[in-house]
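Limitations
The structure tokens in this dataset are predictions for the assembled complex, not deposited experimental models. Users should treat interface geometry with appropriate caution, especially where small molecules or nucleic acid strands are included. An illustrative entry is reproduced here so readers can see what is and is not provided.
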Amino acid sequence: MAATRHPRGAVERINALCTIGACLPIVGAIYEQFAGSELPCPLCLLQRMAFLGIGIGCALNLKFGVRSSHYAIVLLSAMFGAAVSIRQVLLHIEPGDPGYGGPVLGIHLYTWTTVLCAFTITGTALLMFFDGPRPSAPGPRRLDGLERAAVWLLVLLAIANVALAFAMCGFGWCPDEPQGYWLFGGG
Amino acid sequence: MFAAVYAIFLAATVAVLRGRRRLAMGLTIVGLVAALAVFRSYMTDSLPLSF
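Predicted assembly:
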């Protein structure tokens, strides 16, 4: 079906920013992986997947119009991310435990994930108040500059994560505390 | 294993770009279920949990 133009509202703009916002933790985690030489643990990799899911939900709103089923994708992804990150927080909750990896702005990345997923769930619930009757969109929309950039950033990050996960773990399971890249003889 | 689950999410993002809504939503849900299965496998008592 050919892409068509539709008027944009504030909710669409917010969804474009949310798509970029979902990409930022993944960008930060990849930056830490290389700049901080911190290889991600399996739970860290699962948290990146949750952010990809959140980004896809927002991108669906951009491309096909705002629908509650798209918000459901965002909510399910955020709940999954919260479950994984809370699990990791609990693993390191004992006093004296240094945690996994270095802190960023005072707290660890998995604790950031818990905070961001809580914000995502709350923000999505608030956005759903504005999911009233809209002009029906018969097909996919033509994305404008910011929206196209947001969706392409999501695609590029998904490609980067496929490559990085394969380089780290190959076809098998990732070790609990990875020591190197499987592809280059480490791991 | 992780790369395969990421590949599902990658396929979902490409489906969004290509305007395939149902495919994108289906792939994302399959990806989340697969990620949940991976998460579950790391929750068993038989594996050391020292992340």
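Some entries come with short summary sentences. For this one: Chain A touches chain B through 53 residues (CB under 8 Å).
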